[in-house]
């Protein structure tokens, strides 16, 4: 089981680093899915990218892993308004990708899985 947990950790770290950097490389896609009632969308997008990378890097070290895992959980919970907005406005075009209603709805249980994955490293 420890081997699976270690592989999961590497994948989690790589995934959040990639996702975080993507906020800086392609901000337009993220800005399109941000609910209009959220203030300062560009700043929120950059903060999301910063924290995704920061938490991923903190996951590398056993001393900071617990804190980083909880940070990821809170961050994923903070992202829920975006996913609800996507459901309400599907289909939405994000670059070359069209997010239809099914894909928008699938993001909600995916968030729960991502939260559970991060929670695995809180112990």
Automatic annotation (TrEMBL):
<keyword id="KW-0812">Transmembrane</keyword>
<dbReference type="Pfam" id="PF07291">
    <property type="entry name" value="MauE"/>
</dbReference>
<dbReference type="GO" id="GO:0030416">
    <property type="term" value="P:methylamine metabolic process"/>
</dbReference>
<dbReference type="InterPro" id="IPR009908">
    <property type="entry name" value="Methylamine_util_MauE"/>
</dbReference>
<feature type="transmembrane region" description="Helical">
    <location>
        <begin position="68"/>
        <end position="87"/>
    </location>
</feature>
<keyword id="KW-0472">Membrane</keyword>
<feature type="transmembrane region" description="Helical">
    <location>
        <begin position="43"/>
        <end position="61"/>
    </location>
</feature>
<feature type="domain" description="Methylamine utilisation protein MauE">
    <location>
        <begin position="2"/>
        <end position="88"/>
    </location>
</feature>
<protein>
    <submittedName>
        <fullName>DoxX family protein</fullName>
    </submittedName>
</protein>
<feature type="transmembrane region" description="Helical">
    <location>
        <begin position="102"/>
        <end position="121"/>
    </location>
</feature>
<keyword id="KW-1133">Transmembrane helix</keyword>
<dbReference type="GO" id="GO:0016020">
    <property type="term" value="C:membrane"/>
</dbReference>
């Amino acid at each position: 089981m420890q081997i699976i947990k270690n592989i999961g950790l590497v994948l989690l770290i790589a995934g959040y680093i990639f996702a975080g950097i993507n906020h800086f490389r392609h901000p337009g896609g993220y800005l399109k899915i941000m609910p209009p009632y959220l203030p300062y969308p560009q700043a929120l997008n950059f903060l999301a990218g910063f924290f995704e990378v920061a938490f991923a890097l903190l996951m590398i070290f056993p001393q900071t892993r617990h804190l980083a895992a909880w940070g990821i959980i809170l961050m994923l919970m903070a992202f829920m308004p975006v996913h609800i907005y996507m459901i309400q406005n599907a289909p939405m075009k994000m670059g070359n990708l069209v997010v239809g209603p099914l894909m928008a709805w699938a993001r909600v249980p995916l968030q729960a899985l991502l939260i559970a994955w991060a929670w695995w490293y809180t112990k």
